[in-house]
Please model this.
Amino acid sequence: MAKLPVIQYPHPVLAAKAEPVTVFDDDLRRLAADMAETMYDAPGVGLAANQVGVLKRMVVIDVTEEKTGLTVFVNPEIIEKSDTLIDHEEGCLSLKGLYEHVKRPDHVRVRAQDLDGKTFELDCEGLLAICVQHETDHLDGIVFIDHLSMLKKQRAATKLRKLRREEKEREKERAHRMD
Ligand code: NI
Model:
């Protein structure tokens, strides 16, 4: 297993639509294992293949605190959504440091395949429902700030640029102190 670099917004791969998975082989299993390792290391609760630069419809999710609930969703599809919305402050490993409130259905039913190509369906609520929608969005080239109003999205993008600038300055300072 290997930790993979997480691609940062606004890289075009994050705005691209991923292709359906048709081959369930060792390469796919390795990618899933690497994505899981990358997610746990971050740490995060979900990761889509786009975020590691692979345009395949696969996401890994684990919303448990004990990190014992890893689920791999291949070709996930949301087949039912509740009318009730939940407001949750979301973050994303590709928009590091940025957190914004997003409203989404609080309950979804997802149909997906596992790593052997076997189809399963899962009812998701709460954090799992949010995460499944957030990650499935990635496969369609959508990031969470795309759900905000134009004005709020612009503000969020400005905030993100500022965060990155500050991080670069801190890195520079650290490098200076090492001299
Ligand atoms: Ni994300």
Notes: The mean pLDDT is 96. The CA atoms of residues 91 and 99 lie 5 Å apart. The beta strands are 46-48, 58-61, 71-81, 85-90, 100-105, 107-113, 119-125. The first strand starts at residue 46 and ends at 48.
